[in-house]
Prior knowledge:
It is built from one helix and two strands. It is mostly helical. It has one domain (3-64). The chain has a two-stranded antiparallel ribbon with strand order 1-2. A hairpin with a 6-residue loop joins strand 1 and strand 2 (61-64). The longest helix has 45 residues, at 3-47. The chain crosses the membrane at residues 6-29. Keywords: Membrane, Transmembrane, Transmembrane helix.
Amino acid sequence: MSETDKLLIIALLVLIAIAFGYFVMNLLVPIVYRRVKKGFASHSYKTQPIIVEREPSAKNYRIMQPFEVTV
C-alpha cells in the first residue's frame, strides 16, 4: 500500500464517521429535545404560582395564568 492509499482510506473513514454522527444526531436530538421540553414545561407549570390580581373598585378577583415561555 502506498502513502496516498492510506490517506485516502483515512479520509473516507473520517467522512463516514462524520456522516454517521450527523445522522445519529438528527435522529436523537429531536426526541431528546421534545422529552426535555415537555418535562421542563410541565415542571415550570406546576411550580409557577397563579397570580391573583385584585381590582381596586370591585371585590372580584381575576386569576391570571402564568404565560409559558417557549424556547
